[in-house]
Every structure is written in structure tokens, then in C-alpha cells.
């Protein structure tokens, strides 16, 4: 008998800590994929001879491919019912593509190499992450246990982000050597995560989508409503993430503290996960997520009032917004898992569209916020009170407004569910 089937009987008992670790562990190496791609790749491929414009274009093409494969992968995995096998199939793609990305060839071939390795990594990542999320919806029958599973996954993912940021420097004084060793850590972590997943046995069988279509999940009104809340809340969170480096450097004039601020943010997010799990059980997931949104709004409002030298105050903002991040990470996915069980929709299809929206949120945040800043007169690194005021408004004011919109949509969704 597997660890999870022993811990979660058909009636929906408590999940043991070992099962939570077995499920969540895969989130750590998967989190390694994002940071090196956006932090290290531009410099690596610029040294290989590519222009920054070419690198940016290739990243955009690959990201578009990545987003549109998620719903297809989710639909396919529902049809086949092969969550763990799909995750295992992603391993060679991820290991090969990740190693290739961090070792670019010199010369004209670097552009094709970058695009090919990005396609491979993104395909493997989507195959693994969509099925990992869907599996979490099928490992427990009790709503609170689904929240614990989602929190475990996101907690390991936050740890993975931090490790991917600090390990290259810890492993070697040379960045290239540190990245080479990071590939080994990634491969070992990925294998360990898949082996841990293999011990788990779903207690809720996947809903057959054999006669369904890719867009079937979007035809469910409850799913569309929850997806709208997730979209507005996600864009609100992605805008500050896109602009934080500019805000710290030009508004706070504290660029040397950027790493500290980001560390506080992610550590607070991970540390707050147990609180949101507890609070959701006491007051309900929608109420707890709404409380997290209000906390984020207060954090944004505080950030908008800061100026040069307000590093301590911004550290407090990072802690509060990081705590709010914990609610965004654990509760929406858990609510979706409950919806999958209640509406009898394919978990893979739902999480495929969910991941698509998460990636679209990032694209919309950068694609809207950066041109808006340019139109308002902000120039990175240039002095100018008007430009800095515009940056503070877009960094803090726009996300606060979008979070309030998301909160209103969430309140309406919760009221409709109470009345039904």
C-alpha cells in the first residue's frame, strides 16, 4: 500500500507529513527552470554573440509556444489518465534542455540552439507541472487536505526559487562553473521528485474526457468565474514583480538591497503558508483568499507612499506582501481542486487553462506596465520627480486597483455558491 493511500482513506482522512513531502518535493526542481532562464540566459547568449533584441524575441516566441501547449497537455492527460507517467516522460526533456540552455554554442548557431532548448524545456515543464497540479486535485477527497497539498507544493517551489538564486554563487566563484554544477543539482532533484511522486496513489480517479474537447473546461460557468478572479489577482501580483528592480533603484535609491528585499518577500511567502492553510480551514478558502487580497492592497498602498531611503519601511512592505503571496499560492489552486471534484471536470484540462492564464498574467503585466510607464515619462536610471511618481503609481496603485477588482469578483462568486 502506498504512503498516501494509507494516509488518505476513501472517506477523506488526514494526509501524513511524509505524503505531503512526497507530493511537494517535485515543486523544488521545477522552480529551478524559471530563474536561470530570465536571470542568466540574456548574459550567457549575449556572450555567445546574440543581440539582446534577438534574445528577447526568441524568449517571447518560446513563451508563446509554452503557454498554448498547457491546455492541450491538460486535455490529453485527462483522456489518457497517466499523470505520473506523463511527469516521468518530462524528465529527459527537462534534464537535456536545461543542460543545453546553460551551455550555449558560440556563433550564429546560438540562436537556433536557444530556441530549440527553450522549446524542449518548456514542453517538459508544462508536461510535468500541469500533471503535478492535476495530481494534487486527485490525491485527496477532503477540501482541507487539498489545501495542505497545494501549500506543500508551493512551499517547495519557493524554496526552489531561493536555491536557484543562491546556489551558483555557493557552488563556485565562477558563474559558468556554478551554473554547470546547478545542472547536476537540478537533475538529481528532478529524479528525486519523480521517485517521490511515484509512491503516491490517487484516491479520486481522473474524469474521462475521451469524448471531450480542449475548450470543454472553459464552458463550465464556475470554472470561468474562478479563472476571472485568478486573472485579475495574478496580473496585480505580476506588475510589482516586473517593476521591483526599477522601484528599488530609482524610487528608494537602494539598489544594493534588492536581493535582501526579494529574499524577505519569498521567505515571508513560504513562512505564511501554514497560516493560510489554518485560516482557510477556520473561515473558508474564499474568505481567507479575500483576506490575503486585502493585505496585498494595504501593502501596495504603503509602498506607493515611500521615497528615497525608506528601506526599513519597504522591508516591512516586502514581509506583508510576501505573507499575502502565501494566500495567492495555496488557496486559488486548492479552490480549483474543489471545483474539479464538485463539477466533475477533468483536472488536467482545468489546470492546463489555469497554467495558461498564469503565464498570460506575466505577459500582460510586462506588456502593459512597461509601455504605460514610458508613456507617463519614466526613464530607468534618469532623475525626475514626475517619472518616479509615475513609477510609484504603476508599481503600487494599479496593482491595488486590480486586487480590489479581483476581491469584488471573488465576493460575487462566493455569494453565488452560497445561494446555489
TrEMBL record:
InterPro entries linked to this entry: MFS_2, MFS_trans_sf
UniProt keyword list: Membrane, Transmembrane, Transmembrane helix
Residues that span the membrane, as ranges: 20-39, 45-65, 85-104, 110-128, 149-167, 179-198, 229-248, 260-279, 286-306, 312-339, 360-378, 390-411
Gene3D superfamilies: MFS general substrate transporter like domains
Family: Belongs to the sodium:galactoside symporter (TC 2.A.2) family.
Protein name per the record: MFS transporter
Species of the source: Uliginosibacterium paludis
Amino acid at each position: 500500500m502506498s504512503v498516501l493511500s494509507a494516509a488518505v482513506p476513501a472517506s477523506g482522512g488526514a494526509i501524513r507529513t511524509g505524503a505531503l513531502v512526497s507530493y511537494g518535493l517535485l515543486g523544488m526542481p521545477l522552480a529551478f527552470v524559471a530563474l536561470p532562464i530570465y536571470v542568466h540566459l540574456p548574459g550567457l547568449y549575449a556572450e555567445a554573440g546574440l543581440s539582446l533584441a534577438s534574445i528577447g524575441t526568441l524568449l517571447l516566441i518560446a513563451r508563446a509556444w509554452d503557454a498554448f501547449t498547457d491546455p492541450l497537455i491538460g486535455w490529453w492527460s485527462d483522456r489518457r489518465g497517466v499523470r505520473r507517467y506523463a511527469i516521468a516522460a518530462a524528465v529527459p526533456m527537462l534534464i537535456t534542455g536545461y543542460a543545453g540552455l546553460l551551455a550555449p554554442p558560440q556563433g550564429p548557431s546560438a540562436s537556433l540552439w536557444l530556441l530549440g532548448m527553450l522549446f524542449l524545456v518548456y514542453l517538459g515543464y508544462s508536461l510535468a507541472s500541469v500533471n503535478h497540479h492535476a495530481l494534487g486535485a486527485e490525491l485527496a477527497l477532503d477540501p482541507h487536505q487539498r489545501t495542505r497539498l497545494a501549500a506543500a507544493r508551493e512551499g517547495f517551489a519557493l524554496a526552489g526559487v531561493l536555491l536557484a538564486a543562491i546556489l551558483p554563487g555557493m557552488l563556485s566563484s565562477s558563474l559558468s562553473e556554478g551554473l554547470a554544477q546547478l545542472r547536476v543539482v537540478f537533475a538529481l532533484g528532478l529524479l528525486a521528485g519523480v521517485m517521490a511522486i511515484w509512491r503516491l496513489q490517487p484516491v479520486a480517479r481522473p474524469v474521462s474526457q475521451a469524448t471531450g474537447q480542449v475548450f470543454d473546461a472553459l464552458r463550465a460557468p464556475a470554472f470561468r468565474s474562478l479563472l476571472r478572479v485568478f486573472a485579475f489577482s495574478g496580473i496585480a501580483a505580476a506588475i510589482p514583480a516586473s517593476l521591483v528592480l526599477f522601484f528599488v533603484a530609482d524610487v528608494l535609491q537602494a539598489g544594493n538591497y534588492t536581493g535582501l528585499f526579494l529574499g524577505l518577500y519569498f521567505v515571508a511567502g513560504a513562512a505564511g503558508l501554514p497560516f493560510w492553510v489554518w485560516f482557510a480551514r477556520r473561515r473558508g478558502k474564499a474568505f481567507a483568499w479575500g483576506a490575503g487580497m486585502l493585505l496585498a492592497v494595504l501593502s501596495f498602498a504603503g509602498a506607493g507612499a515611500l521615497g528615497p531611503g525608506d528601506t526599513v519601511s519597504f522591508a516591512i512592505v516586502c514581509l506583508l506582501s510576501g505573507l499575502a503571496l502565501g494566500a495567492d499560492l495555496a488557496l486559488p489552486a486548492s479552490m480549483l481542486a474543489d471545483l474539479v471534484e464538485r463539477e466533475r471536470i477533468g483536472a488536467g484540462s482545468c489546470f492546463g487553462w489555469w497554467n495558461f492564464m498564469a503565464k498570460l498574467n506575466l505577459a500582460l503585466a510586462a506588456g502593459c506596465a512597461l509601455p504605460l510607464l514610458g508613456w507617463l515619462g519614466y526613464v530607468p536610471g534618469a532623475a525626475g520627480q514626475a517619472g518616479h511618481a509615475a513609477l510609484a503609481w504603476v508599481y503600487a496603485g494599479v496593482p491595488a486597483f486590480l486586487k480590489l477588482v479581483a476581491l469584488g469578483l471573488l465576493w460575487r462568486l462566493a455569494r453565488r455558491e452560497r445561494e446555489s
